[in-house]
Amino acid sequence: MRESEPLTLYVVYTAKPGCREAFVRQIVMEGIADTIRREEGCIRYDYYFSAQQEDKILLVEQWQTQAHQRIHLQQPHMARLRELKEQYVADTRLGRVTLEEA
């Protein structure tokens, strides 16, 4: 994987019991999601709720390059997001997709 390649991340959060909506609501109310969407290189940053599993949240992130995503992780608002995850999230699973030239 090269830093200059596009990157898509699929993050599956398992919320603590009864915390799914509160987690995403807090991210939106504090402006974290909008701040991330305005970061250089961010193509997509969207949360989805599972209709079948009441504790699951899917986050889809797309970045122009892996380098952009790496810089994103160092931003000050990410510290607050980590605090919210500690409060509301029981488990996090991450999947990465990169596009390679054929």
Automatic annotation (TrEMBL):
One of its GO terms (molecular function) is monooxygenase activity. The keyword Heme does not apply. The keyword Oxidoreductase applies. Transmembrane segments: none annotated. InterPro entries: ABM_dom, AI-2_Isomerase_LsrG, Dimeric_a/b-barrel. Keywords: Monooxygenase, Oxidoreductase. SUPFAM superfamilies: Dimeric alpha+beta barrel. GO terms for cellular component: cytosol. Residues 7-83 form the ABM domain. PANTHER family: ABM DOMAIN-CONTAINING PROTEIN, QUINOL MONOOXYGENASE YGIN-RELATED. This is Antibiotic biosynthesis monooxygenase. It comes from Vescimonas coprocola. The lineage of its organism: Bacteria, Bacillati, Bacillota, Clostridia, Eubacteriales.
